[in-house]
Design goal:
heterodimer; A: about 350 residues; alpha/beta; Metallo-beta-lactamase, Chain A; six-stranded mixed β-sheet; about 25% helix; about 25% strand; globular; B: alpha+beta; DNA ligase i, domain 1; D-amino Acid Aminotransferase, Chain A, domain 1; OB fold (Dihydrolipoamide Acetyltransferase, E2P); 3 domains; seven-stranded mixed β-sheet; seven-stranded antiparallel β-sheet
C-alpha cells in the first residue's frame, strides 16, 4: 500500500466525474474527450466521437493533433499542445501523462495523478497487434475508465493476419472480381492496408475519396502503406480484380456500382456475428477489430489492479455484471455522444 | 467437419443462386461418403430420427454452457446473436490444444446416436471441444436441422443433380424412397451402382406446370385442341398412395402429409398417384385461402383444426393407377381413367374438378371474365393430347388468371435490396389514405412489393427515394408522400395482423404513376371494399 493511502485521500469521483459536456477533471479544469466544445480538452484519439472541433485548448499526442487538423482544419482549436507518450505535465496540480492505447495511430490513455490517487482513462483500446500504432501499455491505477464496445463473451477476435489470409484466398478463388473492403476511414482502413502488405500483397491498393486524406496523413507520419491510389482518376481495368478500400457506408451506396460484380467485404469486429454481417449484405466478412475483445477487456482490467472500474460506452450491462461476479467494483458512466457502432 | 463448415459459412453470405449451386455441387463431388449424405440430409429434411433419435438440443446446450458461463451473460449473448447454435459456438471455450482430431460428420452422427440424454450431452460437449468456432456452429446446425443458410431443400437437390450431370426430376422421383446418408443415390450418380428402386413406397413424381397465357399465344392455338378447367385457389398437391402408406407432396416435392391426416386416411387403401388442389371446404363451398394457410406448415394438427378448417382435395389428374404409369398417355385418356377410378372408389374428402365446356376461345373469354365465384383464380387450358411431363413444358398447359385488381397507392417506406440490388432501394411499402380525427388524411400501409418494374425504372425510383427521404432506420428509408404506384394484386383479405386491417395477395408494382399527385391516390375504404372480390 502506498504511503498516500494512510492519509485519507478523497475518492477519485470527487475530482473526476461526468459533467454535462463529458468526463471532467475538476481540479485540472479540463475535460477528457468532451462531446461539445469546451475551454480545455485532453483528447485520447482522433475518432470523431472523441475528438471534436471548437475547443479553446487541446492537449493530445502529436499524431492525434495532426489527425484533428486534417479533419477539422488548422484552426479547429484555439491552441494545440502536443505531449509525447510518457512525458508528464502538471495541469493545475493534476499530474497528466499519456500512455499508448493501441487503438489507432496516436491513440493514448490519459493517466491522471491527483492527491495520492491515480485514474486512467483509456479512451478506446485494444491489445491485439497493430502495425500502425504503438502497443497498449498497462498502467496500474485506482480507477480504470474502460470502454465496452465488444463486452459480450461472443466477441473473441482472432489475429488479423488470419482474416487477411481469408481475403487473399477469396481473391485467388475469384481473380476477376474486385474486392471492395468497407473499413472505418480512420485507423481500420490504414491498418488493413498495413496488414495486407505484411501478407506480401504488393500491388497498388485503391482508395475511396473519403479515405484518401487520412491515408496520406498516415504515410506522412511514417507508416509505410506501399502504393496506394485514389479510385477517382484510376483506370477501371487496372482496378479490376484488385483491392479497394472505402468507408462502410459506401458499401451500400451507388458508388459501388462502378465496379463490375465486386466482392463486398467488411472489416469490423462486429463481423464475428453472422446476423450482423448479413445485415450489411456483405459477401466476405473480415473479423478485424480495433477494440479489445471480451477476454482482453477482462484481462486488461485485472492487470490494472484498479479497485474501481468505470465503463463509458458499449455493452456496459454485461461487463458491469461480470466484474461484479469477480468481486470488482464497477459501474456504468453512460456518457453521451459515443458512437458504439462505428468500428 | 471443416469442409462442411466452410460450405455453410460461405452459403450464408452468398446471394447469387448460381454461385450457391456451384458451391454445393463442388462440395457433393469432392466430399466422400457418408459425410456428403449427412450434409445433404441437414440441408433438406434434417437428419432422420432413427440416426440420432430425438435430440433435446436446446436443453443439452443450456446444461453444457451453464458449466462455464454465467446465465446472465449467456442470456445477453443469446439476445444479441439471436440464434442459440451460433451463440454457443461463439462462447464455447477454446481449448489450449485440441486433444483429438476434428470429428467428421459421420463421427458426429455415430457418437450422438447412442446413450441416455445425459451421456449424449457429454458426447456433444466432447465433440464441441474438438472443433473451432465455425466447426462448432456447423455441428450444431447439422444436429439441429434447418440450418437457415439460404438454401432450400429443392436447391440442394438441384445441386446434387448438377454435380453429376443429372436432371433434378430424377432425384425428386426417388427422394422419398431414400434415406440419409444416401449411399445408393451417390453410387448411382457416380455410375458405380444401379438406379435406386422406390419399391413399394409412395414417392413424389415431378409435377407438370402451366405457362401463363400471353396475348400473342391465342392466334397460335386452336380451341378444339384444348379442354378448360377452373383454376382453384388452394395449393397444388400430389397424393401418392402405395403399400398402405400415403404421402401428400407440395408442388416442390415437400412432404406435407403430417398436417393433413384426414386426407391420408381417405387414400389409405389405394394404390395410385393423383394430382389435385388442396382446399379448405365447408359444406361444399371453398373457404378463403387464408383458412387453408391455418393448416399449412404444421408438424402436427389438433382436432380443433381438423374441425374448423376441414381439408378437401379436388382432383385434376391421375399419374399412376395400381402399377400402371399413365403419364405417357394423353390428357383425355388420363382424365377418363381418373373419372372411372373416382366413380369406383369415391374416396372421402375428394371430388373431380369439373371441365368447363366451351365452343370457341371467345365464348370461353366471356365465361372467364364473368366468373367471380369464391375459390376460383381463373382458368386452366390443357392440350387434349398432352402427356404428363415434369416442369413447364412449352405449349401444353396454360394458366389464365383472372385479371388482377389494381389500386393507386403511395410509397411510404423503401428498403435496400440484397445481392445485386444491395445498392438500390428496391422493396417498397405503400399506403392508402385514411381520414384522421383532425379531419385530415393519413397514410396507412396496405402492402409491400419488390417486383413489377424494370431495371431502368428501379434506377429512377432509387434516385427519387434518395432525394425524398425524411428518415432513415438502418436499411429502411421513410419518404415524403409523393410517388404513386399503381399496384396490381390478386385479392384483398381481412387481416388482424396488419394495422390497416387488410392484406393483399401477390401485390406487385403494375405502373409507376410519376404523373399522379399523391393526394389523388386511393383510400383505405376503397381497399376494404375489395375484400372478398378479385
Amino acid at each position: 500500500m502506498r504511503m498516500t493511502h494512510m492519509i485519507a485521500s478523497p475518492p477519485v469521483e470527487t475530482w473526476l466525474y461526468p459533467a454535462e459536456a463529458g468526463l471532467y477533471c475538476a481540479p485540472g479544469q479540463f475535460y477528457i474527450d468532451p462531446h461539445r466544445a469546451v475551454d480545455r480538452a485532453v483528447i485520447t484519439h482522433g475518432h470523431s466521437d472523441h475528438a471534436r472541433a471548437g475547443h479553446g485548448a487541446v492537449l493530445a499526442t502529436s499524431e492525434t493533433i495532426a489527425i484533428m487538423k486534417v479533419r477539422y482544419g488548422e484552426t479547429s482549436a484555439g491552441t494545440f499542445q502536443q505531449l509525447a507518450l510518457g512525458e508528464p505535465v502538471n495541469i493545475n496540480g493534476v499530474g497528466v501523462r499519456l500512455a499508448p492505447a493501441g487503438h489507432i495511430l496516436g491513440s493514448a490513455q490519459i493517466v491522471l495523478d491527483y492527491d495520492g490517487k491515480r485514474a486512467v482513462v483509456s479512451g478506446d483500446y485494444k491489445r491485439a497487434y497493430d502495425p500502425t500504432c504503438a502497443a497498449f501499455d498497462v498502467v496500474t491505477c485506482d480507477v480504470f475508465v474502460t470502454e465496452a464496445t465488444f463486452a459480450l463473451p461472443v466477441f473473441r477476435h482472432e489475429p488479423a493476419h488470419g482474416e487477411v489470409a481469408k481475403l487473399l484466398a477469396s481473391m485467388a478463388a475469384e481473380p476477376q472480381r474486385t474486392h471492395v473492403i468497407g473499413a472505418y476511414g480512420l485507423g481500420k482502413c490504414q491498418r488493413m492496408i498495413a496488414e495486407i502488405r505484411n501478407a506480401g500483397y504488393d500491388k497498388p491498393i485503391y482508395l475511396h475519396g473519403a479515405v484518401v486524406a487520412l491515408t496520406a496523413l498516415y504515410q506522412s507520419l511514417g507508416i509505410n502503406l506501399g502504393d496506394v491510389r485514389s479510385v477517382a482518376g484510376a483506370d477501371g481495368d487496372a482496378i479490376a480484380g484488385g483491392i479497394v478500400l472505402c468507408p462502410p457506408s459506401a458499401l451500400s451506396d451507388r458508388w459501388t456500382r462502378r465496379f463490375n460484380d465486386p466482392v463486398l467485404a467488411f472489416a469490423s469486429g462486429w463481423m464475428r456475428v453472422r446476423g450482423r454481417a448479413r445485415q450489411h449484405g456483405v459477401e466476405l466478412p473480415l473479423i478485424v477489430s480495433d477494440h479489445a475483445d471480451w477476454p482482453d477487456l477482462i484481462a486488461t482490467i485485472s492487470q490494472t489492479n484498479a479497485e474501481d472500474v468505470w465503463v463509458t460506452h458499449g455493452r456496459d450491462d454485461a461487463l458491469v455484471h461480470h466484474l461484479a461476479t469477480l468481486g470488482r467494483k464497477a459501474r456504468a458512466l453512460a456518457l453521451v455522444g459515443r458512437d458504439d457502432e462505428a468500428e | 467437419m471443416r469442409a462442411f463448415a466452410q460450405l455453410l459459412d460461405t452459403l450464408v453470405y452468398t446471394q447469387s443462386r448460381n454461385r450457391k449451386l456451384a458451391l454445393l455441387a463442388r462440395y457433393f463431388r469432392d466430399t466422400p461418403d457418408p459425410d456428403r449424405g449427412y450434409a445433404l440430409a441437414a440441408l433438406t429434411d434434417g437428419l432422420p430420427q432413427h440416426l440420432i433419435g430425438r435430440l433435446p438440443l436446446r436443453r443439452m446446450l443450456s446444461e453444457l454452457t451453464s458449466r462455464f458461463l454465467d446465465p446472465v451473460l449467456y442470456k445477453l449473448s443469446r439476445d444479441y446473436v439471436g440464434d442459440t447454435a451460433e451463440t454457443v459456438a461463439l462462447v464455447w471455450p477454446e481449448p489450449r490444444a485440441r486433444a483429438n482430431a476434428e470429428p467428421t460428420l459421420s463421427d458426429a452422427v455415430t457418437e450422438m446416436s447412442h446413450g441416455s440424454t445425459a451421456e449424449r450431452t457429454q458426447t456433444l460437449g466432447r465433440l464441441l471441444d474438438r472443433l473451432d468456432a465455425s466447426g462448432r456452429w456447423a455441428l450444431l446446425k447439422l444436429l439441429g436441422g434447418a440450418p437457415r443458410v439460404g438454401v432450400s431443400a429443392r436447391l440442394a437437390k438441384i445441386a446434387v443433380a448438377d454435380a453429376f450431370g443429372h436432371d433434378v426430376s430424377d432425384i425428386e422421383e426417388l427422394w422419398h424412397a431414400l434415406e440419409a446418408p444416401y449411399l445408393e443415390l451417390f453410387a448411382w450418380l457416380e455410375g458405380r451402382g444401379p438406379k435406386p428402386e422406390p419399391g413399394a413406397k409412395p414417392v413424389f413424381r415431378p409435377v407438370m406446370l402451366a405457362h401463363p397465357i400471353e396475348d400473342d399465344d391465342w392466334p397460335k392455338l386452336s380451341a378444339d385442341d384444348f379442354v378448360a378447367e377452373w383454376k382453384w385457389d388452394g395449393i397444388r398437391v400430389q397424393i401418392a398412395a402405395a403399400g398402405g402408406d400415403v404421402r401428400i407432396f407440395s408442388r416442390q416435392g415437400d412432404d406435407i402429409s403430417a398436417a393433413f391426416p384426414e386426407i391420408r386416411s381417405a387414400f389409405l387403401r389405394h394404390n395410385c398417384v393423383a394430382d389435385g388442389e388442396l382446399l379448405v371446404m365447408r359444406s361444399g363451398s371453398i373457404a378463403p385461402f387464408n383458412d387453408l394457410q391455418q393448416r399449412l406448415n404444421r408438424k402436427t394438427v389438433t382436432g380443433r383444426m381438423l374441425r374448423d378448417y376441414p381439408a378437401h382435395v379436388r382432383l385434376y389428374d391421375l399419374l399412376f393407377e395400381g402399377g400402371d404409369d399413365l403419364r405417357a398417355m394423353t390428357f383425355t385418356l388420363r382424365r377418363a381413367r381418373l373419372e372411372t377410378w373416382h366413380a369406383a372408389h369415391c374416396p372421402p374428402l375428394t371430388d373431380v374438378s369439373e371441365l368447363v365446356a366451351f365452343e370457341t376461345f371467345d365464348s370461353l373469354r366471356a365465361i372467364w371474365s364473368a366468373t367471380r365465384a369464391d375459390g376460383i383464380e381463373g382458368l386452366m387450358l390443357k392440350r387434349r393430347d398432352s402427356a404428363y411431363q415434369a416442369g413447364r413444358v412449352k405449349g401444353q398447359w396454360y394458366k389464365w388468371k383472372r385479371a388482377a385488381l389494381t389500386l393507386d397507392c403511395v410509397l411510404m417506406y423503401a428498403q435496400r435490396g440484397s445481392g445485386k440490388r444491395s445498392s438500390f432501394y428496391s422493396d417498397y411499402t405503400f399506403g392508402a389514405w385514411r381520414s384522421n380525427d383532425a379531419g385530415g388524411q393519413d397514410l396507412v400501409p396496405v402492402g409491400k412489393a419488390y417486383s413489377g418494374f424494370t431495371d431502368d425504372e428501379l434506377r429512377l425510383i432509387d434516385t427519387w427515394i434518395r432525394a425524398n427521404t425524411t428518415e432513415t432506420f438502418g436499411p429502411v428509408r421513410a419518404v415524403t408522400p409523393g410517388l404513386v404506384f399503381e399496384v396490381a394484386f390478386d385479392a384483398v383479405q381481412k387481416s388482424a395482423r396488419h394495422k390497416s386491417g387488410v392484406a393483399m395477395r401477390f401485390p406487385r408494382i403494375h405502373r409507376i404513376r410519376w404523373d399522379k399527385p399523391a393526394a389523388e391516390a386511393d383510400t383505405l375504404e376503397t381497399v376494404q371494399a375489395l375484400i372478398g372480390k378479385g
